[in-house]
Amino acid sequence: MKLDLKNPGDDHWQEVLPCDGSARLKSSFFSQTESDRFCSAICEEVPWSSHDLVLFGKRMTEPRLSSWIGDAGVAYTYSGVRRSPEPWTVTLAHLRIECERATGAKFNSVLANLYRSGQDSMGWHADDEPELGAEPVIASLSFGDERRFDFRHRVSGETVSVVLPHGSLLVMSGTTQTHWKHRIARTKRSVSPRVNLTYRLVLPARNDA
After folding, report:
1. Residue 173's beta-bridge partner residues?
2. Is the pLDDT reported for residue 123 higher than 60?
3. Which of 22, 38, 143, 161 is at a distance of 20 to 30 A from 154, taking alpha carbons?
């Protein structure tokens, strides 16, 4: 599903992808003051931890801190590791409502990520796990220092890059996860910590395994 994003009369949504899906960005979804407040609250409330991933058959430590948060029973498997949810924090529950209002979609979980420096990253991947459905809607909020977000088309190899500022919202929908991979690359420049929240809907049928 390609979304008709809310906020009537607001023309500040930028379509990032040229084809095969949709990734629409609102650079100033929240004000500077709101973004500062949310960033501080998230860093304090979320139970951050380091997790192992299985990539190409090898187990490695994820190069960022993260936490899986959601409704009771909404487990999620990615990169070969199954995770059970932590309970909602006050701030993350509030931001879920804001994302649902903006997109018209429903979310029952969020993957919170903390990139501590430019050395923290995430390699090429797609959010295409079966429990997310064929055309998932993913609302990605960014707080803290801005980082470059890259897309790469699975067939053509075309790359598209966009900077995700403090307080921005990127909404991926339609066939984006089928046709594109994305990443946060390492950077040598000096950057402050960045918090990223990716709200998603995990289908109930996949929660009983």
Report:
1. 22
2. yes
3. 143
Per-residue pLDDT, 75: 87
| Residue 64 clears pLDDT 50, i.e. is over it | yes
Q: What is the pTM of this model?
A: 0.89
Task: Look up residue 49 and give its two tokens.
Answer: 């931890």
Hey, what are 182's tokens? 């994305």
Residue with the two structure tokens 């040598």: 188
Beta strands per DSSP E along the chain: 14-15, 22-26, 52-55, 58-61, 65-70, 76-78, 81-83, 109-115, 122-125, 138-144, 147-153, 159-164, 168-173, 180-184, 194-200
What domains can you pick out in the chain, each with its CATH number?
21-206 (2.60.120.590)
What residues contact residue 7 under an 8 Å CB cut-off, 6+ apart? 102
Helix (H, G, I), strand (E, B), or coil: what is residue 25?
Answer: strand
Looking at residue 88, its pLDDT comes to 98
Average pLDDT, the chain: 90
Contact 48, 66 (CB under 8 A): yes
Amino acid letter, 203: L
Q: Which pLDDT belongs to residue 7? A: 46
Question: Lowest-pLDDT range, 49-53, 84-88, 142-146?
Answer: 49-53
Tokens 């707080």 correspond to 143
When computed from its CA atoms, the radius of gyration of the chain, rounded to whole angstroms, is 16
Three-point CA angle 65, 93, 91, nearest 5°: 65
